[in-house]
C-alpha cells in the first residue's frame, strides 16, 4: 500500500521580492514556516539576513532559524535532513508546512534530492582548504572553471563554500560534481505546491536598495562589530553572507561605500536567484505588486490546505 504523501507548500522568489510580507496573510494559525535560508540559521546575524521579526515569528512559527553559531558549517545536506525531520511534525499538529527562502540550491535539493556524491576524505578537504587560502578565491574559481565548467556556471564566483565543495569532489573522485546524477523527478514523499513571487526588474532593484539602507539604519554595522568581538573573521562560515562579507572586503571604508557594495551584490544575487527559480518545473508564478494576483495566490494555498489537510 502506498504511503500518503506529505503536503508541503514551497514559496520561491528572489531576495527583496516580499516573501516575508506575504506570510502574515496566508492561512493565519494554519501554517508553520521552514526557512530555506543558508544564513538565517546563524544566531546573532539578524539584521543582515533580514530575519522575520519576533512579532511575525510569534504569530507564525518558524523553523531552522537561529540553530547554529556563525563559526559552524551548515550544508545543504544538513538543511534537507533537518527539514525532513521537522515537516512531518508540523503536519501532525494539523498545520501546513511552508518552505520559504532564497537559497535556491537548498530548495532544489529539498525538492529533487541530493546528488549521489561520495564522502570526501579529511586530507582532501585539507588540501583544497590550503589551496584556497594560498591562491585566493579568484584563482580557486578559475580552477573550478577548468575542471567543472558546468558547476562553475551555477556557482557565484564569491561563494567560497560551494567552490570548495565542488573542488573537493573533483579532487576526491576525478569527476566533476555536475556529473553526479540528480534524481530525475520530484521526491516521492512530498505532495508539493510550488508558488513563486516576482516583481518588475526596476521595482525589485529599488526595493533592494531601500532594504539595504534600512538595515544600515537599524544597526547593521553595530551587529557586525558584535560578531567580530565574538571572534568572527572573514573566514567564518556565517561571514560569507552578503551584508557581512563587505565589511571585511572594504575594511575601514565609510558605511556608505560598504552599503553600496551590499546593494550591488544583492542585486546580482537576486538576478541569479530568479534565473535559477525560473528553471524549476511546475511553479505557479504571481506578481507581488499586483493585489489581485496575491489574492489568487492566497486562494490557491487555501484550496491546497483544504483538499490535503481537511
Automatic annotation (TrEMBL):
Family annotation (Gene3D superfamilies): 1.10.20.140, P-loop containing nucleotide triphosphate hydrolases
Site feature (Interaction with substrate tRNA) residues: 103, 125
InterPro entries xrefs: Dimethylallyltransferase, IPT, P-loop_NTPase
Enzyme class: transferase
Xref: Pfam families: IPPT (PF01715)
Alphabetical UniProt keywords: ATP-binding, Magnesium, Nucleotide-binding, Transferase, tRNA processing
Required cofactor names: Mg(2+)
GO molecular function, one term: tRNA dimethylallyltransferase activity
SUPFAM superfamilies: P-loop containing nucleoside triphosphate hydrolases
Top-rank taxon: Bacteria
Binding site for ATP: 13-20
One GO-annotated biological process of the protein: tRNA modification
Reactions that this protein is recorded to catalyse: adenosine(37) in tRNA + dimethylallyl diphosphate = N(6)-dimethylallyladenosine(37) in tRNA + diphosphate
EC number of the protein: 2.5.1.75
Subunit and partners: Monomer.
Functional description taken from the UniProt entry: Catalyzes the transfer of a dimethylallyl group onto the adenine at position 37 in tRNAs that read codons beginning with uridine, leading to the formation of N6-(dimethylallyl)adenosine (i(6)A).
Family: Belongs to the IPP transferase family.
NCBIfam families reported for this sequence: miaA (TIGR00174)
Protein name: tRNA dimethylallyltransferase
Amino acid at each position: 500500500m502506498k504511503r500518503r504523501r506529505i503536503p508541503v507548500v514551497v514559496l520561491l522568489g528572489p531576495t527583496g521580492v516580499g516573501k516575508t510580507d506575504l506570510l502574515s496573510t496566508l492561512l493565519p494559525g494554519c501554517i508553520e514556516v521552514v526557512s530555506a535560508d543558508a544564513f538565517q540559521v546563524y544566531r546573532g546575524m539578524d539584521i543582515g539576513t533580514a530575519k522575520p521579526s519576533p512579532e511575525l515569528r510569534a504569530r507564525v512559527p518558524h523553523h531552522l532559524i537561529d540553530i547554529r553559531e556563525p563559526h559552524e558549517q551548515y550544508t545543504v545536506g544538513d538543511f534537507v535532513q533537518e527539514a525532513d525531520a521537522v515537516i512531518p511534525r508540523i503536519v501532525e499538529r494539523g498545520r501546513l508546512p511552508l518552505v520559504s527562502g532564497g537559497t535556491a540550491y537548498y530548495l532544489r535539493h529539498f525538492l529533487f534530492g541530493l546528488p549521489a556524491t561520495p564522502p570526501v576524505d579529511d586530507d582532501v578537504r585539507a588540501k583544497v582548504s590550503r589551496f584556497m587560502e594560498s591562491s585566493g578565491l579568484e584563482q580557486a574559481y578559475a580552477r573550478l572553471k577548468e575542471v567543472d565548467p558546468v558547476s562553475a556556471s551555477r556557482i557565484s564566483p564569491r561563494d567560497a563554500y560551494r567552490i570548495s565543495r565542488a573542488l573537493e569532489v573533483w579532487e576526491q573522485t576525478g569527476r566533476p560534481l555536475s556529473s553526479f546524477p540528480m534524481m530525475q523527478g520530484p521526491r516521492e514523499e512530498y505532495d508539493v505546491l510550488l508558488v513563486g513571487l516576482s516583481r518588475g526588474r526596476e521595482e525589485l532593484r529599488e526595493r533592494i536598495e531601500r532594504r539595504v539602507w534600512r538595515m544600515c539604519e537599524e544597526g547593521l554595522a553595530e551587529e557586525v562589530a558584535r560578531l567580530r568581538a565574538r571572534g568572527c573573521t572573514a573566514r567564518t562560515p556565517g561571514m560569507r553572507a552578503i551584508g557581512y562579507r563587505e565589511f571585511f572586503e572594504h575594511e575601514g571604508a565609510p558605511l556608505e561605500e560598504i552599503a553600496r557594495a551590499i546593494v550591488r551584490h544583492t542585486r546580482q544575487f537576486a538576478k541569479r536567484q530568479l534565473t535559477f527559480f525560473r528553471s524549476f518545473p511546475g511553479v505557479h508564478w504571481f506578481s507581488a505588486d499586483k493585489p489581485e494576483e496575491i489574492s489568487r495566490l492566497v486562494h490557491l494555498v487555501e484550496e491546497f490546505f483544504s483538499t490535503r489537510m481537511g
